[in-house]
C-alpha cells in the first residue's frame, strides 16, 4: 500500500518543482551601469524599480564598477530611478517588461551644480538654506555616504542594503540685529528645527521673535511657520507651508496699528514621461490691518527638455514671493503689502507670463525669456521721518493709504498698475566647482515721477507713471574655496529715477543695486563650539535710487526701489 503513496508524493514533488520553475522563468530582471556626466562609474548609488502604481518592486546598490542587478520582477510597466549624494536623481520611465525579459538600463547622474546652472538664484531670502548643516551626508534613501570628522577629514562609510534608515535632525538658533527695514528692524531671535522622517519626508518649524530697542511701547513681532514635504512617485514631490506673522509696530491709516497675516503656501512638481516637468501651486492668505484682505496667488511652471542641451518653458505667476516649487525651499514668507487703495484694503496684484528657451553651454547656461506683465497694483517703498499724522491723512478721498514701520520710518503703499512686455537674457558660468557667476539683461518698465517732478502726500500714488527702461545685473553665488564662506551677492542697475523694479518677477528684481548675503563658519581651535556661524545681510548698500518727495508738513521723504537695510548676527547649529 505504501508504493502508490510514494509514487503520488514523488509526482506531486515533480509538479511543484515544475510550477516553481515556470514561475521563475516568467519573472523579469533589470540590470545596468550608473555613471556620472563624465562617464565615471558610481559606487553605492541607490537604484529603485517602481511599478506603475508607485509601489516599490525592487532596490539595489551599485558595486565598485557602478553595476546593479534587480531580478524577480513581474511583467508590467516600471520606472527605474538612480540616486546618490550630491547628484540629481536620474530616471528612465515607461519601461515595459515582458515575461522572462532581461532589460538593460544604463543611467547617468548629473551633479546638483550642473542641473541648476541655468537657475542661479531664487528671490532673495535672509534665512539662506543650510545645505551643510548635517555632519552626515546622506543619499535620498537616508543612507550614509560620507562623514566629516572633527579634523575635517572625509571618511567613506561602508553600508549594506539592509541598513536601518536613521532619522536626521538639525536645530539652528540665530540672533540678528540691525536696521532690517520694513517689518524686520531690531533684534530677532530665530529658532529653526528640521527633521527627516524614515520614509524620506521632511518636517520643519521656524519661529522668529523680534524686539525693537528704545521702543518699549511697541510689542514684539512674531513669525511662526511650519512646513512638510514628501516625495511622490515618478520623481514628484509636494510641499506645504503654513505661516503666521504678527507685527504690532506697523501703523496704518485712520490710526490703525498692527499687521497680521495668515498664509498657506503649497506646491507640487511632477514628471510627465522623460521630457516634461510640471510645477504647480500657490498661496492662500488673509491680511488684517485697518481692515481685512484675502485672496489666492497661484503659479504654474512647465519645462520641456527634448534634448540634453536644450529646454523650453512656460511660467505663469501671480506672486513675486512664490513663483515655483523652489520658492518653498524655505518656510520664511515675505510680509505682504496690504493698504487702502481705491477706498478699500487691497494687496499687490498682477499676472506674469513668460516663455523661455535655454541652451546648455559646457557647464554654464544661456536662457532667453519673453514675458508679459499685467500689473493691477504695484507696491512702492520709501523711507524717512514719516509722522503718525502723515499716515493718518492718507487713504482718504480715494487716495493711496500708507502702512509704515513705526520703529524705522520705512513705509509701503500701493500705486496704479500697468501693462508691459519685455525681454530677459541670462547667462551663467562656473568660476569654481562651488562658485557661479550670472549676467542678466532685461527690458521693461518701472514706475517713476511724472515729468521728473517731486511728488507729495497724500497723492503720491497718483503722481507716478510707468517709464520704459532697461536693467542689467551681475551676480555671484556659491561657496569660496578654502575659507568656506557662503556668498550671494548682486549688483543690479536700472535708471535711478525709477522707484519700482524693471521686470519685477525676475530672479534678481528684489536685489536693487549692491546687495549681498554672507555666511561664515567661525573656527578658533577648541575655544569655539562647532556649528557657530556669522551672518551679514545687506540690501542696497550704497543707498542708490532714492527719489525725494514731500510730506504734508513739507518735510522731505524718499521713495526707493529697495531701501537700504543692514543686519548681522550669529547662528549656532547643533
Structure description:
- This protein is mainly beta.
- It has 3 helices and 36 strands.
- The strands form 5 sheets. It has a 22-stranded mixed sheet that branches. Strands 1, 4, 6, 8 and 9 form a 5-stranded mixed sheet that branches. The protein has a 4-stranded antiparallel sheet with strand order 3-2-5-7, with no helix packed on it.
How does the SSE layout of this entry go?
Elements: H1 2-26, E1 28-36, E2 46-51, E3 56-61, E4 67-73, E5 76-83, E6 87-88, E7 90-97, E8 102-104, E9 107-111, H2 112-115, E10 136-138, E11 144-148, E12 154-156, E13 168-179, E14 187-196, E15 202-211, E16 221-231, E17 237-251, E18 257-272, E19 276-288, E20 292-304, E21 310-317, E22 338-341, E23 344-347, E24 349-361, E25 364-383, H3 388-393, E26 402-405, E27 411-430, E28 435-449, E29 455-456, E30 464-479, E31 486-493, E32 513-521, E33 532-539, E34 547-550, E35 556-560, E36 565-573
Parallel strand pairs: 1-8, 1-9, 29-34
Antiparallel strand pairs: 1-4, 2-3, 2-5, 5-7, 6-9, 10-11, 11-12, 13-14, 13-36, 14-15, 15-16, 16-17, 17-18, 17-26, 18-19, 19-20, 20-21, 21-24, 22-23, 24-25, 25-27, 25-35, 26-27, 27-28, 28-30, 30-31, 31-32, 32-33, 33-36, 34-35
Output the number of helix runs. Answer: 3
Percent of residues in β-strands: over 45%
Rg value = 28 Å
- Overall structural class, as computed from helix and strand content, comes to mainly beta
Shape: globular
Mean pLDDT: 80
Put the structure in a nutshell.
With 574 residues, the protein is mainly beta.
Q: What are its keywords?
A:
single chain; 574 residues; mainly beta; 22-stranded mixed sheet; 3 helices; 55% strand; globular
Amino acid at each position: 500500500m505504501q508504493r502508490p503513496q510514494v509514487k503520488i508524493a514523488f509526482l506531486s514533488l515533480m509538479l511543484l518543482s515544475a510550477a516553481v520553475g515556470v514561475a521563475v522563468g516568467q519573472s523579469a530582471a533589470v540590470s545596468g551601469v550608473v555613471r556620472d556626466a563624465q562617464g565615471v562609474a558610481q559606487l553605492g548609488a541607490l537604484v529603485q524599480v517602481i511599478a506603475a502604481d508607485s509601489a516599490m518592486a525592487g532596490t539595489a546598490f551599485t558595486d565598485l564598477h557602478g553595476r546593479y542587478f534587480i531580478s524577480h520582477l513581474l511583467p508590467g510597466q516600471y520606472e527605474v530611478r538612480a540616486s546618490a549624494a550630491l547628484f540629481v536623481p536620474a530616471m528612465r520611465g515607461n519601461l515595459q517588461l515582458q515575461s522572462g525579459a532581461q532589460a538593460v538600463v544604463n543611467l547617468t547622474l548629473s551633479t546638483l551644480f550642473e542641473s541648476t546652472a541655468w537657475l542661479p538664484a531664487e528671490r532673495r531670502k535672509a534665512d539662506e538654506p543650510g545645505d551643510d548643516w548635517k555632519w552626515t551626508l546622506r543619499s535620498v534613501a537616508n543612507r550614509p555616504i560620507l562623514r566629516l570628522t572633527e579634523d575635517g577629514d572625509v571618511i567613506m562609510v561602508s553600508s549594506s542594503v539592509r541598513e536601518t534608515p536613521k532619522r536626521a535632525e538639525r536645530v539652528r538658533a540665530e540672533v540678528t540685529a540691525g536696521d532690517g527695514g520694513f517689518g524686520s528692524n531690531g533684534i530677532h531671535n530665530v529658532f529653526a528645527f528640521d527633521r527627516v522622517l524614515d520614509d524620506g519626508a521632511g518636517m520643519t518649524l521656524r519661529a522668529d521673535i523680534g524686539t525693537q530697542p528704545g521702543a518699549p511701547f511697541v510689542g514684539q513681532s512674531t513669525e511662526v511657520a511650519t512646513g512638510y514635504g514628501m516625495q511622490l512617485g515618478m520623481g514628484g514631490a509636494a510641499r506645504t507651508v503654513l505661516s503666521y506673522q504678527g507685527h504690532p509696530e506697523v501703523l496704518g491709516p485712520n490710526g490703525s496699528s498692527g499687521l497680521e497675516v495668515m498664509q498657506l503656501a503649497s506646491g507640487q512638481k511632477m514628471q510627465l514621461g522623460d521630457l516634461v516637468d510640471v510645477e504647480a501651486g500657490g498661496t492662500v492668505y488673509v491680511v488684517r490691518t485697518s481692515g481685512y484682505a484675502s485672496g489666492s496667488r497661484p503659479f504654474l511652471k512647465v519645462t520641456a527638455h527634448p534634448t540634453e542641451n536644450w529646454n523650453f518653458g512656460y511660467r505663469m505667476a501671480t506672486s513675486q514671493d512664490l513663483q515655483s516649487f523652489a520658492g518653498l525651499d524655505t518656510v520664511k514668507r515675505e510680509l505682504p503689502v496690504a493698504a487702502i487703495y481705491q477706498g478699500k484694503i487691497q494687496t499687490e496684484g498682477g499676472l506674469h507670463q513668460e516663455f523661455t528657451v535655454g541652451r546648455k553651454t559646457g557647464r554654464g547656461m544661456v536662457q532667453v525669456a519673453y514675458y508679459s506683465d499685467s500689473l493691477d497694483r504695484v507696491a512702492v517703498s520709501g523711507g524717512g521721518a514719516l509722522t503718525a499724522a502723515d499716515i493718518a491723512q492718507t487713504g482718504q478721498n480715494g487716495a493711496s493709504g500708507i502702512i509704515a514701520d513705526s520703529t524705522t520710518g520705512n513705509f509701503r503703499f500701493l500705486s496704479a498698475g500697468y501693462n508691459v512686455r519685455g525681454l530677459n537674457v541670462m547667462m551663467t558660468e562656473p568660476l569654481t566647482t562651488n562658485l557661479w557667476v550670472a549676467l542678466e539683461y532685461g527690458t521693461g518698465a518701472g514706475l517713476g515721477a511724472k515729468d521728473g517732478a517731486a511728488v507729495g502726500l497724500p497723492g503720491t500714488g497718483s503722481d507716478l507713471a510707468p517709464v520704459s527702461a532697461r536693467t542689467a545685473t551681475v551676480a555671484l553665488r556659491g561657496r569660496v574655496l578654502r575659507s568656506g564662506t557662503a556668498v550671494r551677492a548682486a549688483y543690479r542697475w536700472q535708471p535711478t529715477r525709477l522707484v519700482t523694479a524693471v521686470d519685477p518677477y525676475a530672479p534678481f528684481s528684489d536685489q536693487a543695486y549692491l546687495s549681498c548675503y554672507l555666511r561664515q563658519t567661525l573656527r578658533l581651535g577648541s575655544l569655539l563650539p562647532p556649528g557657530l556661524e556669522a551672518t551679514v545681510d545687506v540690501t542696497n548698500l550704497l543707498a542708490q535710487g532714492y527719489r525725494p518727495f514731500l510730506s504734508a508738513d513739507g518735510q522731505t521723504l524718499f521713495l526707493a526701489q529697495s531701501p537700504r537695510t543692514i543686519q548681522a548676527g550669529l547662528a549656532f547649529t547643533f
